[in-house]
Amino acid sequence: MISVIIIILAVALIIGIALILNTKDKKMENQKDKKEKPRTGKAKKTIISIGIAILFVMFVAYAIESFYPSPKYEDFCQIDGKQYFNQTDCEANDGTWTNYPPEAIQKMPNTVPLTGYCDVYVKCQKEFQDENEKYNRGVFFIALTIGIIILAISFIPALEQISLGVMSGAILLIVYGTIRYWGNLSNIWKTIMIGLALAVLIWISYKKLNR
Fold it and tell me: Each residue of 112-168: pLDDT tens digit?
């Protein structure tokens, strides 16, 4: 559902840009001299394509965060500064107690000797990391789905004016999603992802850029 909403927004944005640029091009054809266009047209298209690619990735990234917010550390771990100096209190507050080695037990004057220390964040950090891993996996699949669909859309003849920018944005979006989940992928999946990305880029270069 999230992917569908973002795809609709992204496609609407692309169509809007395409319509604006097509209208502008028609006006420029009637106003500018034909000799001036070869010198400036290519540079302008390159700058516009770079802008579209960067802004497209930013747009989708913020859209994902808006409709599919990332987990917050403070929702899992309450940072209140409390410390616990015995195993009973530590474990009662979901902490993990670790005993010092006998030879390293510290004694403080006029107090009960400290026999260990309490880590009150070890359990909640694990829960946060697990949830964050699930979230990054979700972002990866959303970005991959949207990227592939937008990449296919970039080949539509009506979008010729902005096809390079849209195509670059789709590729960058796939890279963005992959980076988010890269650390959790096995070496086999990393190899497969790099191989697929390379194959797609070679195919695009052959089919699109060398026309």
Answer: 567 788 888 888 889 999 999 999 999 999 998 888 888 888 887 777 777 778 888
The packing angle between helices 2-31 and 37-67, to 10°, is: 160
Long-range contacts from 58-63, C-beta under 8 angstroms, 24+ separation: 59/9, 59/10, 59/13, 60/6, 60/10, 60/143, 60/146, 60/173, 61/176, 63/5, 63/6, 63/9, 63/10
Task: Render pLDDT for 21-45 as a digit per residue (tens, 0 to 9).
Answer: 555 555 555 555 444 445 456 777 7
- Token reading at 136: 């990054």
Hey, what are 62's tokens?
């913020």
Cα gap 161→154, rounded to integer Å = 10
Q: Phi and psi dihedrals of 68, rounded to 5?
A: -140, 70
Using CB atoms within 10 A of its CB, is residue 110 exposed (0-12), middle (13-18) or buried (19+)?
Answer: exposed
Q: Which residues contact 87 (CB under 8 A, 6 or more apart)?
A: 97, 115, 116, 118
Residues near 200 by beta carbon (within 8 Å), at least 6 away in sequence = 151, 171
Task: Please provide residue 118's backbone torsions phi and psi, each rounded to the nearest 5 degrees.
Answer: -115, 125
In sign, the C-alpha dihedral spanning 202, 203, 209, 211 is: positive
